[in-house]
Amino acid sequence: TPTVSTITAKIGKEVKVDGGSYTNVSATELKDLLNKKDFTLINVHIPFEGNLPKTDLSIPYDTIGQNLSKLPGDKNAKLFLYCRSGRMSDIAARELVKQGYTNIWNLDGGMVAWEQSVQPIEK
Q1: Strand 20-25 versus strand 13-17 pairing type
Q2: Which end of the chain has fewer surrounding CB within 10 Å, N or C?
């Protein structure tokens, strides 16, 4: 009989980058994860164009390396990034991996993908 771990669907797709990796997650997967939220949700888009529900922080993607003090002190803490299209959050995710963070998640396609999945943006 298979063990529970082998039948549990893995969420997201691993993206290998310098110094480690992060996980790209679809809007549908994020919606499910928000139901039992166990992460810090960070909007890294500039200029501000609204938040996803349950957003914890807004840190511009290009200053995230200078704003590590706003993040949980534990570099294994689960951090979930998003922006408008996914480009800025990809840059921020790469920077956090370079800074030693090991549990980085990213909304693939950003707020655009979120809205296309018929999800609200909080203006």
Answers
A1: antiparallel
A2: N
**pTM exceeding the 0.85 threshold for the entire prediction:** yes
Return phi, psi of residue 95, to 5°: -65, -45
Sequential pLDDT tens for the chain (123 residues): 444 444 455 789 999 999 999 999 999 999 999 999 999 999 999 999 999 999 999 999 999 999 999 999 999 999 999 999 999 999 999 999 999 999 999 999 999 999 998 677 777
Nearest of 3, 6, 16, 11 to residue 78 by alpha carbon: 11
DSSP string, 53-121: TT--EE--GGGGGG-GGGS-S-TTS-EEEE-SSSHHHHHHHHHHHHTT---EEEETTHHHHHHHTT---
- 26: Cβ contacts below 8 Å, ≥ 6 apart: 12, 108, 109, 113
